[in-house]
Amino acid sequence: MRTRRTTRALAAVCCTLLLFAGAPAPADPGGPGGIPRLTDDRGRTLTLRGWNVEDKVNRGEHALSAITEKHFRDMRAKGFNFARLLVFWDDLEPEQGRYSAAYLRRIERILDWAERYDIQVLVDAHQDVFGPAFGHRGIPEWATRTDGLPFTPHPDDWFSEYFEPAVQRAFTHLYEDTDLRRAQARMWRVLAGRLGHHPAVLGYDLINEPMGEMRAGEELPTAARRIERDQLTPMYNRLADAIRLADDDSRLFIEPTPIVGEGVPTGLGTVKDPKVVYAPHFYNAAMEAGADYDPAAGWIELYEAAVTAYPTAQKIPVVVGEWGPLNNSLPNMARFYREALASLRRYSSGWAGYVWCYGGGYCAVDSAGVFRRNKEQTAAPYAAAVAGRVDADTYDPASGTYRLVYRASARPGATEISLPPSPSGWRIAVAGPAWTDTRTVAPGIPRVVRVLARPGARITAVITPRTPR
To answer: H helices within 162-298, ranges in order?
Structure first.
């Protein structure tokens, strides 16, 4: 969940950064170059660019009604190929053991829209401050156990509610109680069994922004690493086993605690599945509270160093599941978007911005569907799939030039370059023994450039705007 965080939440999270800054630096994991890229079943290197799609307001018979076909058509029209769809356990299983067939049908309808516009979907089991027992969404009330500990709402400072004793204890019970473990696994088997064969489904985000219970006298970074090591890692392995009983193909996306956003390396261990993807979020506490980007603070550099250590060691791809500031019109935000997007390109296979909606705040576009200030930088040419080994993949925001160099694989397959709309169109130049064509995703939707190359050939594709910037 993304809403304005006040100074109390900011202080709670920023202390994490200060504590970590005084700790010994972690060993150099080898850098972003050691992180593998996401690939498809044909061995093509994938890039995902898209947005979160959500309906946190409507429940019951109206659940997910705020999400429409327009969301997917408009995203694809601006060149995006990826959506992270928020679903809620409390909607799926409002009473223990009773799963909502209507809710599953609504999810499938959304997936059908995504397939129509060639958008891959990550199904995210979302929770905010655990769930409805604390006034939010996520884990059902029947699965919430607090041992009678207190909870005080903070309506102007929602993130600090994670530190309320009742909320922290509820996470402990979810991770440790045998019956709740089984209930969570059954929920995922139901989802994977119903959705796993849908062509739009890329994978499953096992739980959004997990938190846990701090011990007396424990510092927040230490608590986060312990929770990740001792509770999240076993949970992810249990859920992976459960999902594989119903779906042996989709990818499994795992998140650290949100503390990684302040430059604290995760304590997660190995999740024993061949299709695991690391899916951290990319938020800065000060900017979440409405502050402008401060380039001198070095936050992006600190975050990148911390967030790349785990996937480098585990040899798994990275897809950032949420990112984007609350107030994108402040003086330094243009620079933030340039530097953030450059950083994400260095180590990730893609990202989902927060959030595709039509209005203010975090919304990607306004009520007329026009990008809100600075968010237009997220729409640029990119290689959605590369049939070969990528040697260079660069984008120059100043000129709008995209350049891809790759060595074509022996396996048959087309490289696909996605083009966002451009007032003057695009100039496409491909060097090397290759055949190119273009296709439209749907009527009125911008084209995709397809490159079919001779096996082993070195191919260079350069995409430039017809009118120089």
So the answer is: 165-176, 178-195, 220-227, 233-244, 285-288
Three-class SS of residue 30? Answer: coil
CB 17 within 8 A of CB 167: no
Backbone φ, ψ for residue 266 (5° rounding): -75, 155
**pLDDT (tens digit per residue) in 141-187:** 999 999 999 999 999 899 999 999 999 999 999 999 999 999 999 99
Q: Which two tokens stand for residue 162?
A: 């994670």
Whether 305 and 28 have beta carbons less than 8 Å apart is answered as no
Using pLDDT thresholds of 50, 70 and 90, give the confidence band for residue 33. low
350, 322 in Cβ contact below 8 A?
no
Helices 69-77 and 101-116, interaxial angle, to 10°?
30
Residue 16 pLDDT level (bands cut at 50, 70, 90) = very low
Q: What is the largest CA-CA distance in the chain?
A: 70
What is the Cα 30 distance to its own chain's centre? 24
Mean residue pLDDT of the chain comes to 92
> Alpha helix (H) ranges present in 78-212?
89-92, 101-116, 165-176, 178-195
Distance CA 393, CA 13 (A): 35
DSSP 42: T
CA nearest neighbour of 369 among 49, 57, 73:
73
CA distance 441 to 80: 11
pTM over the 0.90 mark = yes
Instruction: Indicate the range of 16-25, 286-295, 299-308, 334-343 predicted with least confidence.
Output: 16-25
Please calculate the CA angle 254-151-89 and round it to the nearest 5 degrees.
Answer: 35
Query: Looking at the chain, how many residues does it have?
Result: 469
Q: Is the pLDDT of residue 241 over 50?
A: yes
Which residues have a Cβ under 8 Å from the Cβ of 362 and sit 6 or more positions away?
A: 2, 324, 326, 354, 355
pLDDT mean over 111-119: 97
- Three-state SS letters, 129-155: CCCHHHCCCCCCHHHCCCCCCCCCCCC
Range list of β-strands (E), 319-413: 322-323, 350-353, 382-386, 388-396, 401-408
Q: What does the pLDDT average to over 34-50?
A: 97
Segment holding 251, helix H or strand E? strand 251-254
Residue 265 to residue 176: CA distance in whole angstroms? 24
Tell me whether strands 388-396 and 401-408 are parallel, antiparallel or unpaired. antiparallel
Alpha-carbon Rg for the chain, nearest whole angstrom, is 22
Q: How many CA atoms lie within 13 A of 357 on its CB side?
A: 16
